[in-house]
Backbone:
């Protein structure tokens, strides 16, 4: 991180002391920036302040930047209010869609020269100031969508904000942003929900055959239904387009399967129809491979070393002690529990060069290593 | 596990020394059962035998059970061949669909009295005997589908097999089985692929906004396209039905969004149309909540304690040492890396009763605990 990246942010106002606003404020405080907190809910401000997120706003104006951490639909009015009071030199928001708030701000007569739309890609399943974390945006993208009239001062201030939170600024148009999040966030949510919806009246005997694949595909379907209706409804065109394309692919796959299945089963079926299914799955392979990994670059290929562990206190500590003594760093760990049995498998991800040595060392110490 | 559960299995033939066959054989050997290995590929048999999975089959007959670990389409011929040579008292297979192999076996004139269809729900991204693991089925369901003519001896032997592998036998009809796996495995694979396919020609700038949700939804889309075409094509009706229902839900959601979006945006839109979207998301919530957790029962609610860790060898060991000293068991752990930065967050899942004590102990030792 560039140590000078937040040098031009000395005093920042955060409007909205929810999860995102409080997390932004905590991150700014960690960088020594003065933060003022404002919210219609005085209790939220008090809690955020007590957590170290800043001090309650008391009429201060002419600040360096005002961060409007309010719901998307509330952004235009909050911006107009702040600009009329001349609270700051620059303004940005954190809404997960960008075209609608910007259009709303323009319609209200806000000054778009000092405003740049922002969207930090980060969040968690909990909400409210108590869930705020200074590291919520660490290493995550932070989209910035300047309008044609936005001055570079405002964009620079928002970029400093993103970097001060440890995020990577990504500048793109609001149209490109909304299409992008429709593809990588909003449509996936609807698709996961549609898959999970098929389970809502399923026979428990069928669900007993569930595995990790189904759990992964449907994990985000647990999200708040009202909140997500609002998000989807604020990005209608791009989301509906992606959903229609996916539905068309599924209908085509179902028709091809029925055609290929025929009377003869898989092998006697229509090769061309089976080809339609294979081609969809291959496009899926390709799309999957394009998703950046957790570290931002392409997903790294770690070697996975599975180790059988017992389900008692200290077992993981013993295992990681053994790994640490070998001087090997664990890049990731996943624990597969064994339902009904007192053992599980810890899958250790290590650099491929380290795997053989790790297997040897753990095996020599009596660990049950399966590789 | 019931120590006597595999008492009636003394000598077992495994036909097919791939991932599943070798894993079954390794599990049986761990229980002291004599295993004979047979495969058209002599090298696969030699490798499996060298790994401790048993001894090469040498014409032995009148065994207790023959496990046909061959592809679904090869099951009928393998069963006929084995029954004509009177190799075993009972026969079972491991194919991931059940109606088609059973219908094929009946058409070939196999004796269904001594055969019970089986499907161990377990697997991994790798294949071949070298990937075999004795614990591959530990705690996983193992579906058994007796036909109306299957005698109880054969079913009992297959149940002993499942238990000897540490799996939980689930008895259901082949029709119910195929409908169930269409819902919990085959359709989710197609849906994940259709979502991922939308990313195959996406702008890298859009993909840069990807997060963990998208990674989870599309993870299984990385599976082998040809292999999965075969699986889907062998379960045509049930899979196509689920895909059509999901496609219809997505089309309805897209239409409702466009209707609710209108000229006024989310808030001025049609509440009835938005209600269609909310209702789909709520059904998704309900369906998601019905999926059994890793331990087989409903997903337990653990408290999650996030701890900031540095990315150096021994850091996790130090952390787990500290947890172990507190006498607290870690039920699960997930590591969130921070792309481009030398820190990450270890999210420790513990019993809710243990969380406060853990936070206190770790905090007192200088760990950065965010809860």
Residues:
């Amino acid at each position: 991180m560039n140590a000078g990246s937040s040098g031009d942010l000395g005093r920042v106002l955060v409007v909205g002391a929810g999860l995102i606003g409080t997390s932004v404020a905590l991150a700014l405080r960690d960088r020594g920036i003065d933060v003022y907190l404002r919210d219609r809910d005085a209790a939220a401000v008090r809690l955020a302040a007590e957590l170290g997120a800043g001090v309650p706003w008391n009429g201060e104006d002419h600040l360096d930047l005002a961060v409007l951490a309010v719901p998307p639909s509330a952004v235009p009015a909050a911006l107009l209010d702040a600009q009329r009071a001349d609270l700051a030199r620059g303004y940005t928001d954190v809404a997960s869609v960008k075209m609608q708030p910007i259009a709303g701000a323009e319609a209200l007569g806000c000054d778009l020269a000092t405003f740049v739309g922002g969207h930090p890609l980060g969040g968690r399943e909990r909400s409210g100031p108590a869930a705020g974390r200074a590291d919520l945006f660490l290493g995550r993208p932070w989209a910035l969508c300047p309008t044609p009239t936005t001055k570079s001062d405002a964009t620079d201030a928002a970029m400093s904000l993103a970097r001060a939170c440890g995020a990577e600024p990504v500048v793109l148009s609001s149209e490109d942003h909304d299409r992008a999040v429709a593809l990588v966030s909003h449509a996936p949510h609807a698709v996961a929900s549609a898959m999970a919806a098929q389970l809502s009246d399923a026979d428990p005997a069928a669900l007993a055959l569930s595995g990790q694949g189904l759990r992964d595909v449907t994990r985000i379907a647990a999200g708040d239904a009202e909140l997500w209706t609002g998000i989807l409804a604020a990005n209608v065109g791009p989301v509906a387009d992606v959903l229609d394309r996916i539905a068309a692919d599924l209908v085509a796959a179902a028709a091809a399967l029925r055609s290929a299945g025929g009377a003869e089963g898989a092998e006697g079926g229509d090769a061309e129809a089976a080809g339609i299914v294979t081609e969809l799955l291959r496009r899926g392979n390709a799309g999957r491979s394009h998703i950046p990994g957790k570290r931002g670059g392409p997903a790294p290929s770690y070697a996975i070393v599975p180790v059988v562990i017992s389900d008692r206190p200290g077992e993981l500590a013993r295992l990681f002690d053994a790994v640490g003594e070998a001087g090997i760093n664990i890049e990731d760990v996943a624990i597969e529990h064994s339902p009904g049995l007192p053992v599980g498998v810890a899958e250790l991800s290590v650099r491929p060069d380290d795997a053989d040595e790790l297997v040897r060392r753990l095996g020599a110490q009596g660990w049950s290593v399966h590789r």
